[in-house]
Amino acid sequence: MFKDIEQQFLRYVKKMMSYNEAIQVMYWDMRTGAPEKGLEQRSEVIGVLSQEVFKMSISEEMAAYIAKLSPSDVQEQLSDVARHTLAECKKGYERNKKIPEEEYREYVVLQSKAENVWEKAREASDFNMFRPYLEKLVAFNKKFIDYWGYDGNPYNTLLDLYEPGMTVEVLDDVFAKLRERIVPLVQAVVSSRHQPDTSFLFHPFPKEKQRAFSLELLRELGYDFSAGRLDETVHPFAIGLNPGDVRITTRYDERDFRTALFGTIHECGHALYEQNISKELIGTPLCTGTSMGIHESQSLFYENFIGRHYCYWKRNYPLLQQYAPEQFANVSLDEFYRAINEAKPSLIRIEADELTYSLHIMIRYEIEKGLFNGTIAVKDLPDIWNDKYEEYLGIRPHCDAVGVLQDVHWSGGSFGYFPSYALGYMYAAQLKQAMLKDLPYFDELLETGELLPIRNWLTEKVHRFGKTKKPLDILHEATGEGLNAGYLIRYLEEKYKAIYQL
Amino acid sequence: MFKDIEQQFLRYVKKMMSYNEAIQVMYWDMRTGAPEKGLEQRSEVIGVLSQEVFKMSISEEMAAYIAKLSPSDVQEQLSDVARHTLAECKKGYERNKKIPEEEYREYVVLQSKAENVWEKAREASDFNMFRPYLEKLVAFNKKFIDYWGYDGNPYNTLLDLYEPGMTVEVLDDVFAKLRERIVPLVQAVVSSRHQPDTSFLFHPFPKEKQRAFSLELLRELGYDFSAGRLDETVHPFAIGLNPGDVRITTRYDERDFRTALFGTIHECGHALYEQNISKELIGTPLCTGTSMGIHESQSLFYENFIGRHYCYWKRNYPLLQQYAPEQFANVSLDEFYRAINEAKPSLIRIEADELTYSLHIMIRYEIEKGLFNGTIAVKDLPDIWNDKYEEYLGIRPHCDAVGVLQDVHWSGGSFGYFPSYALGYMYAAQLKQAMLKDLPYFDELLETGELLPIRNWLTEKVHRFGKTKKPLDILHEATGEGLNAGYLIRYLEEKYKAIYQL
Questions:
Q1: Residue B261 covered by a domain
Q2: Residue A455 belongs to domain spanning
Q3: Catalytic residue among B163, B267, B303, B366
Q4: What is the mean pLDDT of chain A?
């Protein structure tokens, strides 16, 4: 009897997921060359399907499935997939149902207005233009936290949206440790007399050659082209439509090949995650990464722990030299390696290197936490922002455009998202350390281009589970311990002390 | 009161159309490079959405809208768009509702099996492999005709699926006239001593240059690239996702540039139709071509009445010569014109020229009519097919693969579709004649590349109406008379007598 309900429930969910897949295909299409004049109508189509998915997530039918399948004696008999799917749907149901419909509609309108205003405010470098919208967005999210409730700290509820189970307690601890060691390290790097020469990076490098080189690297990294494709967009992304169709996009800067090179490797890390999720999760909300942070750990693992590793370039630098002989003929591997690992404080997060990146995140984390704990007011953000940049990175933004207005996230109402980026770094470093126990010849694998064991390890420990496990459980099972900032700290200290001869 | 219902009804229909647009985007994506491993799941997604559209078309909600809005006093007060939308939905409702659900499911399964079997049968050139499937497909369609009912001739019901309002009576008449004049004309062409030299057509012509040339022609023809794009597929098509997004695909044969050239111009004709449908029809089932035949008239108008016209090449041949100087340096415009208008009997419909094409269609028409009137049995098809080819075209297929098994249509259960192709020729010739009254300098427009008046005329008379008018009404209003095969006959006789010096 309940087996019938289980089947009906899974069919119902599969329908929602089918709509989502259709939406994602249209999203990809819009970003990779859909004709401009059709976009308005296409947005409406996406709107119709999205609304349908939302309605289904809070329908009476959904409520009935949850009611019938939730009792623990029933749950015990459900398949693993059904049980985890139920948990996800329940979470979504409760979240979506608790916000009064009218209020949510207002919020959606506000979001889209705020994004437009933010764009203009950034162009004008005028925080005050954006301020009233940001205040409303924060106020809405405070109300949502009230509706949803919270454990320990109101901000936890927002963190949980992107990093299920993550808390202020954990983040305060790891960020304090990071800050303590990274801030002085950055200062030492800045004042080192051994700065890398980067001048040779900025030679013209034709797009077609960059693309061909990227394709070779992607193949070696294990990206499956019969389950994906590489396209070009202004803002690169990876998108998992289903595990058999995970697409990457990249951007080519003909004056700086690093944009496409590291961008592609980064998105490849995301894509390998989605390509290797267990097939049995297709058609459920579990067929995706478990969290933003774990997703980012995969992209950063590939971008930094492989893509900026000396041994990786011991193998691939000769190939790069073939693609751009004039540019690199007189540059040694060592010079190249130091150049692509240059670290220095900068104002813009998305241009930051791996050493300084977490500091950018910490600043945003502290501000968000303050906003939702009532210790920081929106009106004071520009000053607080600038002070923190001076304190952590030793540089002060000269205007809002390169300061508090630089990121799109808040304008879309995304609070609690930023910490995932820093978590991605920490997760990646911790996974790398655990991987070394199973693959002690890691460096040699990079040097010989045998990258399959690495991907297999990540698939075994991370990818295949999709969203059936929480991020901290995945981390714990893979590494034997909870989140530990020490691995990232040690990695950065060793690497940058060597490069800058500290 | 009924205004509310009208609005609700239009919203309901818009939702169905949104699902359809999503399906079409995925369909386009599947054919232009979606990764292979994702296709199975993508097909399921398409299946889920299609089923939903089908369900909505026969739902109780739909039945209620039809019941409430159909009374003539209500209809009178509806907007034009709502009234025509209602008529379309009613037609769909009645069609879909009358077939028992279980029977329809069986039929869908049969269709997909039959297509596979047909492919194998064609490879093996063995009609008997396909025969039992074709028998079942015909039997199902006969039952459908019983469910749906018919006027005059059972086959009319199938014709109406593709060409609303078209009847055996009309077709018998026009096809008899065509046959009477085209068959002897083809014989005369075959035995003419003035055969064009076509040897220079088959030089290597690099794909990239073909594409660049195609793009130039498309722009001149008035194809709007901000509402479309050109991609590459094995089987070329045009697809209207909405009037702001109408895409074309083409195929490049590097040993025969005609494939891409005329294929692109042909699809452009389809695309111009869809790009210029009135915007107020977006979100309704009226936002598409009125029938297969009228759609084909637009593609054929561009392909033949423009693309194979002497004056068109007077302008564009020098450009072609620039793209392929070696191939055409020593070929005069007259030689080129005669070569691209070569006509000769052949076995394969899709490779046929404009002179012989209608004969291929007539054969299929006569066979289909016989199948549904009970005068022809499936088992006799190969012989009947071959006899008719001998009679009309003077050549006899030596095996089923190039005979009765050549077309995909029947394997998908599409009976009644073929006549639309021939109707497209007749409509196009008749429209051309009417156009000449308004645009007497037609030839000069081609010669100067001022093609906008031509497109505007077609938009005014055909495109903008979408599916709000029936094909024969469009024809009548545009040309002042009903279907008249005389225009196509006159066009072909004049053109081919000149080319072959008869």
A1: yes
A2: 199-335+436-461
A3: B267
A4: 97
B494 is catalytic: no
Looking at the structure, tell me whether residues A204 and A318 fall in a common domain. yes
Let me know whether A93 and A242 are in one domain.
no
Q: Count the domains in chain A.
A: 2
Q: What is the mean pLDDT of residues A438-444?
A: 98
Give the mean model confidence (pLDDT) for residues B245-269. Answer: 97
What is the percentage of chain B residues whose pLDDT exceeds 90? 99
Within-domain flag for A243: yes
For residue B381, being part of any structural domain is answered with: no
- State the nearest Cα–Cα gap between B37 and chain A, in angstroms: 5
Nearest to A433 by CA among A488, A482, A470: A488
- Cα–Cα distance, B452 to B216 (Å, whole number): 15
Going by pLDDT thresholds of 50, 70 and 90, the confidence category of residue B327 is very high
Q: In the structure encoding, which two tokens stand for residue B461, read together?
A: 């008379």
Kindly give the pairing relationship between strand A245-250 and strand A230-232. Answer: parallel
B442 and B306 housed in the same domain: yes
- Tens of pLDDT, residues B381-437: 999 999 999 999 999 999 999 999 999 999 999 999 999 999 999 999 999 999 999
Q: What is the DSSP string of B171-238?
A: HHHHHHHHHHHHHHHHHHHHH-S-PPP-GGGGS---HHHHHHHHHHHHHHHT--GGG--EEE-SS--E
> Mapping DSSP to helix (H, G, I), strand (E, B) and coil, where does residue A272 land?
helix
From the list B25, B37, B52, which residue is nearest A29 (CB)?
B25
Question: Who's near A501: CB < 8 A, 6+ residues apart?
Answer: A192, A194
Cβ contact, residue pair B22, A49, below 8 Å: yes
Check whether B295 is labelled as a binding-site residue: no
In-domain check, residue A355:
no
Whether B70 and B212 share a structural domain: no
User: Is A101's pLDDT higher than 90?
Assistant: no
Rounded to the nearest 5 percent, the helix, strand and coil shares of chain A are 70, 5, 25
A348-393 residue pLDDT tens: 999 999 999 999 999 999 999 999 999 999 999 999 999 999 999 9
Alpha carbons A411 and A114: distance in angstroms, whole number: 5
